[in-house]
Specification:
elongated; alpha/beta; about 325 residues
Length: about 325
């Protein structure tokens, strides 16, 4: 349920309403917008008398929210969420480019790539220390050592790091990670989602390969229900009947999610296609469709990469693409203005 308050509501009446709701076990999320203040009510609201609340002098309207996701719902939070990460932000009209290797292979490798992508306009470094792989014989990542290499790259460049958490046992190692990534395979690992819901750092949830929008948003709801409202959604392609590409990138997710939720939306064209030559057109399409950012894999020697080389761009290929993406974003902002 949401309660839309009138402009500049009487403070005493508002505090009385909030106290009454809390006595009934209702959790209240307040969203202050330019035109209205909205109280999002979470809990058993079935016994609340809508007419009684609507009759209050400070109340403009009361509506029941049918969707099972409440905190992630735009009806609860009409303004877009902007997430601050170090010296950069995700959302709020900026285009965030997260770039780096699929897997961290050495300190020299990740530091060199971090310097290159920063020079090209990337504002965050992505890289995997723990790697979920379909085959048990494939490279599984360097683990804790890989995290240390990512931190070294951050120290050299100042780029915040984004890396994937695979298991609850790894959580203590992520104390100094800037953004925790929950991968597609763990999108519905509810114990993991609950745990990161108690962290004080942003969490990026990749869409499961067969997940609906509602299932994806319910995963975000798990994190937000734990108190962590800094959630980012990442579309990385879904599984369809088409086998030419690794997955099928769902660009329709951008306008759909923009309508349903206030959370920032990132697109990963690298995992979506599995082919480096498809990254540019789909990245351009993502920016044109209104994405808040992109996650792009960059490797200095894709032919010899230990993980996902075929979808990785060389730094010299990423450079003109990043500049083109930023230019397109600025042009679109000008047209909207």
């Amino acid at each position: 349920m949401i309660v839309i308050l009138k402009h500049n509501p009487n403070r005493d009446q508002l505090e009385s309403l909030i106290s009454w709701l809390q006595e009934k076990g209702i959790i209240i999320h307040t969203s202050v917008g330019e035109a209205h203040t909205i109280l999002g009510l979470v809990g058993d609201t079935s016994k609340l008398d809508i007419d009684l609340i609507a009759a209050l002098d400070i109340v403009d309207d009361v509506k029941r929210v049918q969707e099972p996701y409440k905190n992630a719902n735009r009806k609860f939070h009409p303004e877009d969420t902007v997430i601050q990460v170090g010296n950069t932000q995700i959302g709020g009209g900026t285009l965030t480019i997260m770039a780096g290797p699929c897997s961290v292979e050495s300190e020299d490798q990740v530091v060199a790539i971090a310097k290159a992508v920063k020079a090209s306009g990337a504002t965050m470094l992505r890289g995997g220390a723990f790697k979920p792989r379909t085959s048990p014989y494939s490279f599984q990542g360097l683990g804790p050592v890989g995290l240390e290499y990512l931190k070294a790259a951050r120290a050299e460049t100042g780029l915040p790091i984004v890396t994937e958490l695979m298991d609850l046992s790894q959580l203590p190692l992520f104390k100094d990670v800037d953004v925790i990534q929950i991968g597609a395979r763990n999108m519905q690992n509810f114990d993991l989602l609950k745990a990161v819901g108690h962290q004080d750092k942003p969490v990026m949830i990749k869409r499961g390969m067969s997940a609906t929008y509602e299932e994806w948003l319910m995963s975000a709801e798990y994190v937000m229900a734990g108190g962590n409202e800094n959630v980012i959604l990442c579309e990385r392609g879904i599984r369809t009947f088409e086998s030419y590409t690794r997955n099928t990138l769902d660009l329709a997710a951008i306008p759909v999610l923009r309508k349903l939720t206030h959370l920032p939306i990132i697109i990963d064209p690298s995992h979506a296609t599995g082919k480096s030559w498809l990254v540019e057109p789909l990245a351009m399409g993502a920016v044109a469709t209104g994405a808040d950012g992109l996650q792009i894999e960059v490797h200095n020697d894709p032919a010899h990469a230990l993980c996902d080389g075929p979808q990785s761009l060389k730094p010299e290929v990423f450079d003109p693409l990043a500049k083109k993406l930023l230019k397109l974003h600025e042009m679109l902002k000008t047209l909207e203005g």
